[in-house]
Amino acid sequence: MATQASDFQSLSRRYTADKGFRAFIQKGLSGYYKKRDENKANFQDWQGARDLAAETKYEAVNHLDKYLLEFEEKITERGAKVFWAPNAEAAREYILKVAKENGVRSIIKSKTMTSEEIHLNDALEKEGFGVFESDLGEYIVQLRKEAPFHLVFPAMHLTRGQISDLFQKELGSEATDEPEKLTMIAREVMRRKYCEADMGISGTNFAVAETGMISITENEGNARLTTSLPKIHVALLGIEKVLPKLEDLSLFLPMLATAGAGQTMTCYNTMYAGPRQPGEPDGPEQMHVVLLDNRRTELLADAEQRDALGCIRCGACLNVCPIFKNVGGYSYGTTYGGPIGSVITPHLRGLKDWKHLSAASSLCGACTEACPVKIDLHHHLLQNRRNGAKDSPNPAEKVAFGGFSLMMGRPALYRFAARLGRIFQPLQTLANGTILDPLRAWTGTRKFPALAPKSFHDQWKKDRGGRK
Q: Model pTM?
């Protein structure tokens, strides 16, 4: 029976065997590295900025009870309705209820990974609502009936030719490989959807407790239209997105742009503080804010790993991860891929079924070094491995390591096992990687190291004339 781990192994083998795919992903990221480093140099002290960002998120995460209530109080005063969703089901049901009570027919969405986490599109479409993604990358993968490939670049795995073929098939457009023309094809479709939509659903980059505002940062302007033209705006955010003060954005907005996309600043940075106020000419009539827990408080209760809640979803750790760059985003089989996904997914979706993600790591530490808020990612991967071994130990591994421990504590037994190993090594070499090889899980992709003809102990005795 297929498991999450077996699916990961199957997909990762397929993607790593595709050298063209790997080269395409790595070429795409090479430009990002150059621009990221240029913009990091624009900070007076990038490491100092990371320290301050980590301290700010530490303060926010460790006092969520205080800052979330402050945020709710301030935004409610201006007419927004706040719903506390303990899980994905509750969040979906609330949004469906709002849509049904207001006679919504068409829904437009801006980019929100949190909606992917709770499978919101599927739930809305099953109830008969038309749902359209307005972010270009999200719209492309929606047409392909795929999930986003990357936290920041949803369609980074597709060539311009593939996108052109998709638009020809789904939209009846002419073939082109010019990015501007491809963008205009999608824009022509989306402009109509904005005007037709009764509800706009957005994500949130940050929620400011001090002022009761949500902050959305984007490059296309689609979120502004999504939140302003429809009569109802629903903002969906994980409870960890809160920041204590408005001035914190002066650090986090440029840091998110630099770490996430190699930019000085994203093109559009907008604050939303509630529905249209009396005397205002535009904006939604209703604003609903859905604060999603979905097992985040369980991660908060883990003092060892709660700093993972400080993630600002910049995707920097994915961009530098040697595993992600070779196996791709879809191999992970979950909303959040790469190192941060491997850390938090076992918390959000269950350790037993998702512990394999933490083993899909080189533990090189590049993710921790890249993280703008200094999450200790590679150590958390090790901690997940430890927790997974404790939670659901592998019987074969338990026997193997039990035998290893027994052997290593008894020198005579160790020397006997070493002699047997030298005797049977030629047979193992012949069976290497085949079904007859008891070590094939390891030797399937590498050769077992050859044992020395003589042990150090035997050589020592020989050189000293039999004396120990």
A: 0.89
